[in-house]
């Protein structure tokens, strides 16, 4: 993309993603706009909500509550979706994820017969409520479904069951350690493919079929078919249509966390991250570093060390951007409930002290 095109695309996507002037009032509003939030790390999911809302705190988001389902969906990766959407999204993406995991399951000794027995046994195993992985594997063994509890087999077996619509992740039993619960998903829908594309465009416009395929994990032919089936009137009224036609740079600064949808939601990432700095944002192994955005374009990365936020700017930042970053740091520390004895500038900026 040319420089002018990059700026227009970024400005439009910022508005579509609730990173501009419009914000949601709660987590449900964010999930509804974007369709799904990446959720292998709930702390990162919370930061994605923070950047798109006002005056919330992480402890009150309810991400593990009944309004949401946390399950393997797009690209076979954990996502958080509205509970009422889990059934039809699984109907579309579940078979694809099961097929993609077949080779690894075979390597782990998880043949189709064993997996199907587990799917049949899981409602009884989880009848008493959510269980941690070790407890659930032991309960399955007591019901005659025995697997090696020490390797990767449990994770792949449970992902298979999730793709079959039997279970999803429950509340965390420890930081980063989820439980599993029965899933009571709604029915599939005949128009799931174009509906998923519509939801995607709702929070990612402007985008094309290649972007949709990269986000969803669907084959390119299905992504193209989905865009073809979208009604022109529906596409024209999607949020950010006006911004796409007349985007405006406003100097808006947002600090987004790991795996933010803005940094993951497109095939071509150059509208968000200048090519010379891609390696500083995407550091390998699928890891996406927390990033500072100005009008949707990355200008720095940041990390949280204890109660301190450290910045690594790509280039010197203007006084206006530094002031906006300091305000974002204040908001993050408030959102996370961090102890901060005194206000000072985040490290990495040409000021004294750190943000605590």
Helicity level: 40-55%
Give the low-pLDDT segments. 233-244, 349-356
Largest sheet: 4 strands, antiparallel
User: What is the spatial order of strands in the main beta sheet?
Assistant: 7-10-11-12
Given the structure, what is the number of helices? 16
Radius of gyration from CA coordinates? 21 Å
What fraction strand? 15-25%
Mean pLDDT: 89
Count the beta strands: 12
Structural class: alpha+beta
Our count of domains comes out at 2
User: What overall form do the CA principal axes indicate?
Assistant: globular
Order of helices and strands: HHEHEEHHHEHHEEHHHHHEHHEEEEEH
Q: What's the end-to-end separation, in Å? A: 39 Å
Could you characterize the architecture of this molecule?
With 356 residues, the protein is of the alpha+beta class. It folds into 2 domains: 3-182, no CATH class; 273-356, no CATH class. It has helices spanning 3-16, 27-34, 42-50, 86-100, 102-107, 112-125, 133-142, 153-163, 192-204, 209-216, 220-229, 232-236, 241-245, 261-264, 278-281, 319-336; strands spanning 37-38, 68-72, 78-82, 131-132, 167-174, 177-182, 253-256, 282-284, 287-288, 291-294, 297-305, 308-313. The strands form 4 sheets. The protein has a 4-stranded antiparallel beta sheet. Strands 1-3-2 form a 3-stranded antiparallel beta sheet, with helices on both faces. It has a 3-stranded antiparallel beta sheet with strand order 4-6-5. Strand 11 (297-305) and strand 12 (308-313) form a beta hairpin. Helix 4 (86-100) packs across helix 8. The protein is globular. The model is unreliable at 233-244 and 349-356 (pLDDT under 50).
């Amino acid at each position: 993309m040319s420089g002018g095109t990059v700026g227009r695309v970024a400005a439009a996507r910022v508005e579509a993603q609730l990173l501009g002037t419009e914000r949601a009032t709660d987590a449900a509003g964010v999930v509804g706009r974007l369709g799904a939030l990446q959720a292998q790390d709930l702390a990162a999911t919370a930061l994605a909500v923070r950047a798109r809302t006002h005056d919330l705190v992480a402890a009150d988001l309810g991400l593990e509550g009944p309004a949401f389902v946390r399950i393997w969906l797009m690209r076979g990766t954990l996502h958080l979706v509205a509970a009422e959407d889990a059934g039809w999204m699984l109907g579309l993406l579940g078979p694809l994820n099961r097929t993609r995991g077949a080779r690894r399951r075979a390597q782990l000794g998880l043949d189709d017969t064993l997996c199907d027995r587990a799917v049949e046994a899981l409602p009884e195993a989880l009848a008493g409520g959510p269980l941690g992985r070790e407890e659930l594997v032991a309960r399955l063994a007591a019901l005659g479904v025995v697997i090696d509890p020490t390797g990767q087999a449990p994770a792949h077996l449970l992902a298979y069951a999730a793709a079959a619509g039997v279970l999803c992740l429950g509340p965390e039993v420890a930081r980063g350690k989820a439980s599993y619960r029965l899933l009571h998903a709604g029915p599939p829908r005949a128009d799931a493919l174009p509906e998923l594309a519509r939801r995607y465009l709702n929070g990612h416009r402007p985008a094309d079929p290649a972007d949709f395929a990269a986000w969803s994990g669907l084959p390119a032919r299905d992504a193209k078919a989905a865009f073809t089936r979208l009604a022109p009137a529906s596409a024209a009224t999607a949020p950010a249509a006006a911004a796409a036609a007349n985007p405006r740079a406003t100097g808006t600064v947002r600090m987004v966390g790991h795996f933010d949808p803005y940094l993951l939601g497109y095939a071509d990432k150059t509208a968000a991250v200048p090519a010379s700095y891609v390696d500083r944002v995407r550091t390998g192994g699928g890891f996406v570093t927390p990033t500072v955005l100005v009008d949707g374009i990355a200008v720095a990365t940041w990390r949280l060390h204890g109660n301190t936020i450290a910045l690594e700017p790509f280039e010197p930042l203007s006084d206006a951007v530094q002031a906006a970053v300091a305000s974002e740091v204040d908001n993050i520390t408030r959102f996370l409930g961090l102890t901060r004895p005194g206000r000072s500038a985040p490290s990495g900026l040409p000021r004294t002290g750190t943000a605590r």
